[in-house]
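Bumping with the actual sequence this time:
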Amino acid sequence: MYSISSNYVNYNTTPAVVPISPSCKGGRPRNSGEMPAKLMQVPFTAAPASIRTQLTTKEEKEQYNTLLRSADKRSRKALETMLKNGTLLNADSNDNSTVLANLHKIASAPRAPGLKNDVILRDTI
């Protein structure tokens, strides 16, 4: 059992800060805390993002329709939302494939017995 006494000393404190003279040793003057007279301005130019929200090729339309046929109601809603906000046609991957192409692979790739593509697709979406 631990006892708490009034002679408790906190060893995690920092020592008091001692003020220094106006000019430091070594030739560098002490910072007075004033702002510099001239501030550097950095221009902000936002590059327009290329977000695709429409299916353009026949292949993309076929892949999207295949996904809609094999998806349940909740997954269809999620697919529509992903298409509207640009996530579905995003190609920021190592192999430059879109999310749509990867989901189509999940929906159409042969699986081991007992694994259903519909269930895996639903869980992925």
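The tokens above came from a reply further down the thread. The chain has a mean pLDDT of 79.
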